[in-house]
Design goal:
Layout lengths: L1 H23 L16 H8 L1 H32 L4 H16 L2 H26 L13 H25 L3 H9 L4 H30 L2 H6 L6 H10 L4 H26 L5
Helix pairs in contact: 1-11, 2-11, 3-6, 3-8, 3-10, 4-6, 6-8, 7-8, 8-11
C-alpha cells in the first residue's frame, strides 16, 4: 500500500506541472498563472510570431539533419560492431553507453572547446591557401556545429536500438540467402535491411525528438542561431506568458507523438 501511494505521488509530481502548463496555454488572460477563461488566442499569436517561426524553422533543419546523419552513421556503426569480438567489443560497448549517460552540459562544453580549437587551427590554413585578393571563408559556430554536436549525441541511441534489433534477427534467412549464392549486398538489401528498418526508423524519430528539444548543447554551440528551446528560454527570462505555455504545449504534443510512433515501430514486426 505504501509503495502504491509512493508511485502515485511520483506520477503526480511528474505530470501535474505538465497538466498545468497545458491548461494555462488555453488561458484567455495575459497572465500565465491567472486563468481567466478558455481561449486558443495564444496559439494563434505564437504561430504568427516571426521569431517563433524562424526559431522553429532552425530547430526543424537541425533536427532533421542530425536525425538523418545519426541514423545512417549509427546503423553503419552497429553493423560494424557485430564483427568485433572480445575485449575490444566490451570497450566499444562501454563507450557507447557512457556517451548516453554523460550530462548534456559536459557534451556541450566539450564540443564547444573542440570546435573552437579546430576552427582556430584551420582558419589560418585556409587564409594562407586562399587566393590573394579573395576573402577566405571563416569557420565559426553556426548550424553546422549544432548539427555535428547533435549527431554525435544522438548516434549512440541509434546504435543501441539497431544492435538490439540485430541480436534478435532471424539468422536462418541470412544463411539461406548465402546458401543460394546471393551476394552480400543483395542479402543486406533484401534480408537484413527490412528486418532492421523498424529500429532504424525508431532511432530516427528518437534522434529527431532529442535534437528538436535540446537546449543545453545548442546553447553552447549554436553561435548566432536561435533554436526554439533557446527562444523559449529567452522568453521565460522576460516573464512567463500564455504564449510560452502554448509553445511548450505544442512542442510537448509533437514530442509525445514521435515517441509513441517510435515505440510502435519498435514493437511492430519484432523478430521471433
Amino acid at each position: 500500500m505504501v509503495m502504491r501511494f509512493y508511485s502515485i505521488g511520483i506520477y503526480l509530481f511528474l505530470y501535474v506541472p505538465i497538466g498545468i502548463l497545458v491548461l494555462f496555454s488555453f488561458n484567455s488572460g495575459r497572465h500565465a498563472s491567472d486563468f481567466q477563461g478558455f481561449s486558443v488566442e495564444w496559439y494563434g499569436k505564437a504561430l504568427s510570431n516571426v521569431f517563433v517561426i524562424e526559431s522553429l524553422t532552425t530547430s526543424l533543419i537541425i533536427a532533421l539533419s542530425a536525425a538523418t546523419l545519426s541514423s545512417l552513421m549509427g546503423t553503419a556503426a552497429a553493423l560494424a560492431l557485430q564483427q568485433v569480438r572480445g575485449r575490444l567489443r566490451a570497450l566499444f560497448d562501454s563507450l557507447i553507453y557512457v556517451s548516453i549517460i554523460i550530462p548534456g552540459i559536459v557534451i556541450g562544453i566539450a564540443t564547444l572547446v573542440a570546435l573552437v580549437t579546430v576552427f582556430d587551427l584551420l582558419n589560418p590554413i585556409l587564409g594562407a591557401l586562399w587566393p590573394e585578393g579573395v576573402k577566405p571563408p571563416k569557420l565559426s559556430l553556426g548550424l553546422a556545429s549544432v548539427i555535428a554536436a547533435h549527431t554525435l549525441f544522438t548516434m549512440s541511441l541509434v546504435i543501441v536500438l539497431v544492435r538490439a534489433r540485430i541480436a534478435g534477427m532471424d539468422r536462418a534467412l541470412i544463411e539461406a540467402s548465402q546458401d543460394l549464392y546471393a551476394s552480400p549486398w543483395r542479402t543486406f538489401m533484401q534480408i537484413t535491411l527490412p528486418q532492421l528498418l523498424p529500429a532504424i526508423l525508431a532511432g530516427f524519430l528518437l534522434s529527431f525528438t532529442f535534437s528538436f528539444d535540446d537546449f543545453i548543447i545548442s546553447f553552447f554551440v549554436a553561435g548566432p542561431n536561435t533554436t526554439l528551446p533557446i527562444y523559449v528560454f529567452s522568453s521565460i527570462r522576460r516573464g512567463i506568458t500564455p504564449e510560452v505555455n502554448a509553445i511548450g504545449t505544442m512542442v510537448l504534443g509533437v514530442s509525445l507523438t514521435l515517441l509513441i510512433l517510435a515505440q510502435y515501430l519498435l514493437q511492430r514486426r519484432k523478430p521471433r
